[in-house]
Write a structure and sequence with these properties.
Strand content: 15-25%
CATH topology: Rossmann fold
Strand order of the largest sheet: 3-4-2-5-1-6-7-8
Distance between the termini: 19 Å
Bound molecules: adenosine-5'-diphosphate, magnesium ion
Radius of gyration: 18 Å
Order of helices and strands: EHEHHHEEHEHEHEHEHH
CATH architecture: 3-Layer(aba) Sandwich
Number of strands: 8
Largest sheet: 8 strands, mixed
Structural class: alpha/beta
Helix content: 25-40%
Number of domains: 1
Shape: globular
Length: 257
């Protein structure tokens, strides 16, 4: 069961790719859990989940965090469990829609030199369980950082897909993500180009990501803006769907070794 993580600069299309890939796996009959690990969470809305905006992220569930870790959130220095029970959380706190399970993680707290606070311990244990302890496809929609992953969970990630758009900044972020991924031991990196409007733009992305496995490019679709203005889920673009289907095929094809 593939575990796929998606990262890249803000606005490049991580959530768009996550949504379309999750849908592609679900259509193929797989059990899929889509995990929104971007603090600015909108994967649910992109997938057309009703009331997506009302889902409370795990990191905000203070009572749950207290109950499972035995500590009050933000009680720095206090004693709390480092291996809280989490195996019931994916079913208990996820929502299902159209064959896709959605779990919203919320933000990892950052503190000087790493923060071992109860929130992070619970999120870390949960991520570890999602990646290592469950038998389903995982699509992990992350922010530009990859702080939801660690040395312990990195080995469970089959692919870290970095999304880039035609532009210097997203290429710079891609190289930073590549470095962070290397630091925690993720080896299987790949790139997807998005918002591509011409062959020149595609060539620019290919040149800027040389050395990384290119899974494919997604065209710019002006129709998405219209869909968003009307509050429709982004999943309705046929042009994007067909390019993500090609990426899906490449991702799931047996790899020649
Ligand atoms: N191929 C595309 N064509 C047109 N608009 C796109 C495309 N990909 C993403 N967008 C739009 O760009 C914005 C950012 O996309 P999103 O997937 O939310 O990025 P991220 O998750 O990386 O921040 C959204 O408004 C989205 O609809
Ligand atoms: Mg996003």
């Amino acid at each position: 069961m593939m575990k796929i993580a998606i990262s890249g600069k803000g606005g490049v299309g991580k959530t768009l790719l996550s949504a379309f890939l999750a849908r592609a796996f679900a259509v193929d009959g797989y059990d899929v859990i889509a995990i929104d690990a971007d603090p600015d969470a909108n994967l649910g809305a992109s997938l057309g989940f009703p009331d997506a905006g009302k889902i409370v992220p795990i990191s905000h569930l203070k009572e749950l965090i207290r109950e499972r870790t035995g500590a009050r959130p933000s009680a720095g220095g206090a004693y709390f469990k480092l291996n809280p029970r989490v195996d019931d959380l994916p079913d208990e706190y996820s929502t299902r829609h159209d064959g896709i399970r959605l779990l919203v993680m919320g933000e990892v707290k950052r503190g000087g030199g790493g923060c071992y606070c109860p929130e992070n311990v619970l999120l870390g244990s949960l991520m570890s369980h999602l990646l290592l302890g469950r038998d389903e496809i995982v699509i992990l929609d992350m922010a530009a950082g990859i702080e939801h992953l660690s040395r312990g969970t990195a080995k469970a990630v089959d692919r870290l897909i970095i999304v880039v758009e035609p532009g210097q900044a997203s290429l710079e972020t891609a190289h930073r993500v590549k470095q962070l991924a290397g630091d925690i031991g993720i080896k299987e990196l790949a790139v997807v180009g998005n918002k591509v409007r011409s062959a020149d733009e595609e060539a620019y992305i290919r040149k800027g990501t040389k050395g990384l496995d290119m899974l494919g490019v997604i065209p710019y679709d002006a129709g998405l803006v219209d869909a968003q203005m009307r509050g429709l889920p982004i999943i309705q673009s046929p042009a994007i769907k067909s390019s993500v289907d090609a990426i899906y095929a490449k991702l799931t094809a047996p790899r020649n070794t």
